[in-house]
Design a protein that fits this description.
By secondary structure, the protein is mainly α. The chain has 21 helices and no strands.
Length: 509
């Protein structure tokens, strides 16, 4: 039964253990993100409201930028296993400490002014989510090769989606439990989830050599992937501009969404229930899109359409929001306000679900043309650091716009449409450059094979040869997959040497 489930997800023999580990991490990430998101958003709206929304996104971007820069820097200095375990440990301690702090600090409300803990809880949601995803996809990319990545990338986070759905729809029930007296008690669920994620991360690092690529980097001449180099290169520059526009539009949609539900659901109990059911519905939409629509769009229409789908649908809902807002109103809660409310939350729902289920997996495929030794470094800088730069810039722009006396909520809708048009434009530009990059990669790989006698890569192959002598069959299989990319000609002889292996899986390779 369990094997059939893995086969449904696309896994083949020899991939079961990796998949269960990643599904476990993804599942408890879902519980963590669901409980933390509802708790942080609900407390923020109850105590601070729209007044500090722009400032919160600005601070979120600044903290996210700082944490991503530190993460990328440490990735170069220490082993990935230590980094990803330390990352999970720090988040676990922070969430546990924050929950403890609520026992000693008065929360406050909108009338009492600024409330520190709800503000800190809200602004840390983005940075912690970003760091968790960087660690998760870093593990995924290090225990699966390129072909496996293409096959499994659309389904490997299914456990996260299913668990997040269960968590969101369970929150109204969890609030009724004896130990959940207040909204901030949801942090107890977040803390327990992080403890389990930390434990599973340690097990993954213990059972799989996730540091193998770092060893190859030390023995190979690796091209410079500094931030200046990223913006000098046309392809990586387009990747960066696209992620800035995509994140920017998501931040402005989030701003409009939170400002709208503050008007529609001012009561704490109704707000908690609405956020849990709404976010649960978004995850269900993500699951449906990822399971039944993702492959159809990617295989039939290609990566360009996959990137353009979200902004096109968002523009349609935002146009509806503009029309209903101007004709029926958008500032006062009455019967007509429902029209504007429905367009805004529908735009938010489709934006969030399509970004998670379609755009994000498709965007990760644009990093595959890079050499294996630099791919993760570039991906972390673009998706992590530059993605947080986008949040920082969007928050700063929100503060600037909100400071203008004549600017109202509906004016943000116009800006969302403009940025969404930018996402469509850069989708086309990025896809065209992607095709050029693929051709360059194929040519360079052909030249590498032709001139392999002139290239000093034996030190890297020596690392792989040491792995091939390991008694751990998983390490041997991972080494063979990397051997296939570094020296496909010599691979045949290496495979013949493995016929004497005691492992059935290694012999089948």
């Amino acid at each position: 039964m369990l094997k059939k489930f893995l086969r449904f997800l696309g896994a083949v023999d020899g991939e079961d253990r990796q998949m269960w580990f990643l599904l476990g991490v993804g599942a408890f990430m879902g519980f963590f993100l669901a409980s933390y998101q509802v708790g942080s958003e609900s407390l923020f709206i109850q105590t601070l409201g729209e007044k500090y929304l722009a400032e919160s996104f600005f601070v979120t971007g600044a903290l996210g930028l700082l944490s991503s820069v530190v993460y990328v820097y440490l990735q170069k200095k220490i082993r990935f296993s230590r980094l990803v375990i330390g990352n999970a440990a720090v988040i676990t301690l922070f969430v546990s400490g924050l929950r403890l702090a609520f026992e000693f600090v008065e929360i406050g409300d909108k009338e009492s002014g600024f409330a520190l803990l709800p503000f800190l809880l809200f602004v840390m949601m983005g940075p912690m989510t970003s760091l968790l995803l960087l660690g998760f996809w870093g593990l995924f990319g290090r225990i699966f090769d390129t072909r496996q990545t293409k096959r499994l990338i659309g389904s490997v986070d299914t456990g996260q989606l299913v668990a997040t759905i269960v968590a969101f729809f369970s929150i109204p029930l969890l609030i009724e439990l004896p130990f959940v007296d207040d909204t901030y008690d949801l942090l107890l669920i977040s803390a327990v989830s992080m403890i389990i994620i930390l434990w599973l991360t340690v097990l993954i690092c213990k059972n799989y050599n996730v540091d193998l690529i770092d060893s190859l980097k030390k023995d190979q001449k690796v091209e410079d992937t500094g931030y200046l180099g990223i913006f000098k290169n046309n392809y990586t520059r387009l990747l960066s501009v696209f992620i800035i526009c995509s994140m920017g539009v998501a931040i402005f949609v989030e701003y409009s969404f939170l400002a709208t539900i503050e008007i529609y659901h001012p009561e704490e109990d109704k707000l908690n229930r609405f956020l849990s059911f709404f976010n649960g519905t978004v995850i269900i939409m993500s699951f449906i899109i990822q399971t039944f629509i993702n492959d159809i769009i990617l295989n039939k229409f290609g990566l360009k359409v996959a990137l353009m789908t979200m902004p096109i649908i968002l523009i349609l809902f935002m146009i509806g929001g503009l029309v209903s807002g101007h004709f029926f109103g958008y500032e006062i809660l009455n019967e007509d306000f429902l029209f504007f409310f429905m367009f805004i939350i529908s735009g938010k729902a489709f934006t969030a679900s399509l970004r998670d289920a379609l755009e994000s997996p498709a965007f990760k495929l644009f990093f595959l043309p890079f050499n294996l030794t630099v791919r993760f470094d570039i991906q972390n800088k673009v998706e992590g650091v530059i993605g947080q730069v986008a949040t920082f810039l969007a928050g700063g722009l929100q503060i600037l716009i909100a400071s203008l006396v004549f600017v109202k909520l509906i004016h943000f809708i116009y800006l969302i449409i403009v940025i969404a048009l930018g996402v469509i434009y850069f989708s086309v530009k990025l896809y065209n450059q992607y095709q050029i990059k693929l051709k360059e990669t194929l040519i360079s790989q052909r030249d590498l094979i032709a001139d392999k006698g002139k290239i000093n890569e034996f030190s890297a192959l020596r690392v792989l040869n040491n792995e091939l002598e390991s008694e751990n069959e998983i390490r041997v299989l991972n080494a063979l997959r990397l051997y296939e990319q570094l020296d496909p000609i010599r691979l045949t002889r290496v495979l013949l040497d493995q016929l004497s292996s005691s492992s059935v899986k290694v012999k089948m390779k």
